[in-house]
Amino acid sequence: MLAAVLKDFNNLVLEDVPVPEPGPREVLVRIKSCGFCATDYKAIKGIRRNVTFPLIPGHEPSGVIAAVGSDVRHFKVGDEVICQPSGYCGLCPACRSGNTHYCEHAYTTGGDGPDDVRPGAFAEYMVTGEETIFLKPACISFDAAALTEPLSGAWKGVVQKSEIKVGDDVVIIGTGGIGLLCLMVAKAAGAGRLIAIDGSEFARNNAKTIGGATHVIDVRTPDIRKQVYDIMPDGPDLVVEAAGPIEAVNLMTSLLRRGTRWNVFGITTHETFQLDGGLTHFLEARMDSSFGTTPTAMHNAIRLMERGLVDPEKIVSHRFPLSKIHKAVETMGTPGRNKVIINP
Known about the structure:
About 30% of the residues lie in helices and about 25% in strands. It is of the alpha/beta class.
């Protein structure tokens, strides 16, 4: 099969490699679509260094089951499926408590996090555990299905962790792909006023036309707090940082009022921000954070798509065949793109 193999940083090679064979409780998936995540790009370019070579990246796939292991009971050849990138044992204390993304024996296909990183979906076929597979509803395209994992992350952060309520005034900082999905989830969950903050005019336009933002603010303009409070006189009920830089976290803390819920969602680098202890105490603002996904989050993301409440395919700006993976990498480094999809 054809696969994009990362040999070293900045050395992604298209190769013919053997089609993998599934183990007893595994399935072989013929990949139809795979989202190109920023973490894939960072691994390829050497921005993210926790990579073991060789690696086949790609952790947002959908496809068709091509073969099943001897002990697989719930899926069959020909099933159209969505793959959760994070596998789990189901038996350790973390799994038994519902936190499968904390699993002591976790693995990931094409992504990062656990020590056990397996070949991903920038390939024609991928093997994964039966526990990571979900049936794809017929009404959902393969491209939309490939975005289930990032959509599930947005649902987990905005709905499960930060407990958005109907009518909440919400601010989303950073409106790239994941920020747009957070906007779409917040809109579907009944957000009242919905402000998107970003430094890119392209991103702000997308926030309105795709994400459903009622207002947008250029982060480069002065006194962001005043602009937010002019729109939301009582202050935001929920602020989600979906940008990544530490400056976005600092901006988020500057927007708090008493009782605001705030979610450290986008930043993954080990940087420090400061809080006034007494002010934090008297504000009673509640900090949450969210990473990864779980079967519950994946299930709910599929429900959002199946019921027509969120269409993640709207954020797709570019599609490339696997043979054009290097053009896709180039596109990932440009400002005028949203979500990039690889169609092996």
